[in-house]
Amino acid sequence: MHQTNDMADSRGAAMPADNVDNGLYGQDILSVNQFDRKLLEYILDVGDEMRALVRRFGKANLLEGKILANLFYEPSTRTSSSFQAAMLRLGGRVIAINEVKYSSVTKGESLPDTIRTLESYCDVIVIRHPETGSAQTAGKAARIPVINAGDGAGEHPTQALLDLYTIADELKRLDGLKVAMVGDLKYGRTVHSLTRLLRNFEAEFAFVSPEQLRMPDYILDELKADNHTYAEYEDVHEVISDVDVLYVTRVQRERFPDPDDYERVKDFYVIDPELMAKAKQDMTVMHPLPRVYEIDTRVDDDPRAAYFRQMENGMYMRMALLAAVLGKA
Amino acid sequence: MHQTNDMADSRGAAMPADNVDNGLYGQDILSVNQFDRKLLEYILDVGDEMRALVRRFGKANLLEGKILANLFYEPSTRTSSSFQAAMLRLGGRVIAINEVKYSSVTKGESLPDTIRTLESYCDVIVIRHPETGSAQTAGKAARIPVINAGDGAGEHPTQALLDLYTIADELKRLDGLKVAMVGDLKYGRTVHSLTRLLRNFEAEFAFVSPEQLRMPDYILDELKADNHTYAEYEDVHEVISDVDVLYVTRVQRERFPDPDDYERVKDFYVIDPELMAKAKQDMTVMHPLPRVYEIDTRVDDDPRAAYFRQMENGMYMRMALLAAVLGKA
Amino acid sequence: MHQTNDMADSRGAAMPADNVDNGLYGQDILSVNQFDRKLLEYILDVGDEMRALVRRFGKANLLEGKILANLFYEPSTRTSSSFQAAMLRLGGRVIAINEVKYSSVTKGESLPDTIRTLESYCDVIVIRHPETGSAQTAGKAARIPVINAGDGAGEHPTQALLDLYTIADELKRLDGLKVAMVGDLKYGRTVHSLTRLLRNFEAEFAFVSPEQLRMPDYILDELKADNHTYAEYEDVHEVISDVDVLYVTRVQRERFPDPDDYERVKDFYVIDPELMAKAKQDMTVMHPLPRVYEIDTRVDDDPRAAYFRQMENGMYMRMALLAAVLGKA
Fold first, then answer.
1. In chain B, where are the structural domains located?
2. What pLDDT, on a 0 to 100 scale, did the predictor assign at position B204?
3. Domain B158-311 is in which class?
4. CB-CB: which of B57, B88, B297 is closest to A93?
5. DSSP structural state of residue B102
6. What average pLDDT does this structure show over C25-43?
7. pLDDT at C107
8. Do A2-156+312-325 and A158-310 share a fold?
9. What ipTM does the predicted assembly reach?
């Protein structure tokens, strides 16, 4: 939406969106900073309704006749499929544009021109783009709602929303939780966004990472400003017995200039049945996926392993957001 | 349609299609030469109806249960998306085949075999292919309608039809217009096809291009044969104050063996607010897009800048054509 | 379906599936060995019904609200389009995932994780994958039905089923036929699978191939165990006058270390009008396509040339299978 270019900068402080009272109809979804507690509670409720509809009827034909342009400048099977399924289950239709890099873009067309063309054909645009800020650019160019499905090192707000939905669904509350985020906290877009969303609730944070991959100071500063408690750790074993949410991300070898450093710490961030034996019974293990070695597949059958349910929740949250911005939630 | 292989050669003179009285049901759309004035007026009217339906209801479920195979041998996000949206807004469904180059084609299959396979699955085929004449080949092989979405240096008839629709919509008439075509008139498939369509109306032409990129003689000869007036220019400033339609295309640096030649003329074909200040109030600026530098983005907000509306019209014209060949217009 | 991991090995003897009495509802389609005569007759009948519905109404809205994930790890326009058309004609919707190689797979995700993610979004998965056994792996990981659309040198059961359907439809019987398989019988996945399906009927086989590309012994051993008659030949001219089914595949030059060997035999496997003049009037010529030189295009208009009808039958059989596994056949 080009009317909404007063969006807070993604690095800025959380700003209550001025559309809270009116809901999300006609709005872009560009940043987690658009959401305050009231709006979060509303969209999680809509997600619950979507899940109930899908489980009962397989679908919810709220968006019959509407078209989504699913514009992916970089591949992401998971996110792309999730948005497509969300639109289809709502009775809408999808134009999937995956080959963008080979196409008009290579002829030098600007992103605003591409967006203005696409909005002639469809009712809502989902965009994934490798450049930070591109979703904002798209939102500014379009008169129809634009949903950010990841813009480089920027944001991926629908991931953070489905993460929050999963916490609420697994633990039946969002206040009073001890949340451990584990792994690469420096480059991990998902842990930054989820932390920001959780600032709207009473949460205590444990950040578990190698020294090289610590949570950035600007996130920590935001928590301090809010009087949220956090502590930093190097090894997940230090915190496992005490956490309600264990949010796992991968520590990549390539992040370490010295391979010895990697070898020393890599096992600190691996979740296996032995570690899980020390965890509480009513906690939840989450991961944005894809998962490689960082969660042992033997954990998959543990009832606390929520990561595949988390994927499914992605569809419900995206249904909720699509329905909301198109005025049907 | 293999019944219709009596199509005029794309370089031949305009030939009134023998299906004028019967409309387009069951026909291929391969060349602008299929269309005479009566058929053009008919299809523009259907386009108007489609636009009214989309604006009122968001859709027009005339093709419920029909399947379009959207067969793109070379990428074109814009044209592909436009055809997909057209089919979806008509209630039909789409099989998008974008990765053709990697597939059975590489196993050496002939185009007629590919077409005969696809027609087993669908009701209409849209084909874009880099080789001139390929759409004719496809049309001959298929028993179902085939629509040419661009065949190399050949034709792109639906682009010319949407251009004509846009002129009619912006200026509310098609006769008595002074039409300037600007830029690369030698290699520009769109300006050739639009010129041919405009021969069905009273039009006067101004062709504005570098010497190296003049309108080909065979197009000029066709105009002479019809007693249409035209003149050639090197600089758009010479004609701007007098034109009703300014149809802009890009002059590419690579077309000039000598870079100095390019530098000397390049600014002659750039549309900016200063140029627009000299133009009539009731004229229209069009461009097939993508646009790079040849239209200054400051022109975008000028009410005479029709190029984004032109894109939108593409969907309505393609809806009209799909409905017409499937007997639902 | 992870419940059905008691599937016979694709190289093992034919095993009557234990789901015969219950039909295919909720089952995977991974191997031709799942099908006995009773189940084959059932699914061919469903195919007939699908064809009748498509020919009368253009569609059969049995799967309204269902979503197919069409997961192609290697391109196959023909098979992919056929499954998509089948799902769309059943009123279902499709998420086409063609770019898998560029996506989460490259991030190192395991196939079971990909499948478990996708099954959150859809109701049935079709998978094509270059590695033998991958479809079994997918079937084991998924709680929803998985259909094998080709797993490397493994199986391609829906191709064999459409081949069988075509024989039944062209010749109006499946018993008492003399079936010649011609060309590359060593590497040809389709001829292996079709031979196995035909073991459920009274059939006599003629295997026509170069010495280097003979039918593998394990297939011949299966026929012996069943008391099926077969003979091997080097030249199709030896058998042409006597066969009811001529199933043609391509002999590729690259299979011959010595080019002279190829030159000596290549014409033995080419079907042209002269050869067809020697064939019976009530026989059928089939080919899995794509066809290059091995069937002369002059044969295409021969009423015995069934290969394009065979493609069309692919859609009906896939409609039958999709409807069956989703409980709507």
1. 2-155+313-325, 158-311
2. 98
3. alpha beta
4. B88
5. G
6. 96
7. 56
8. yes
9. 0.90
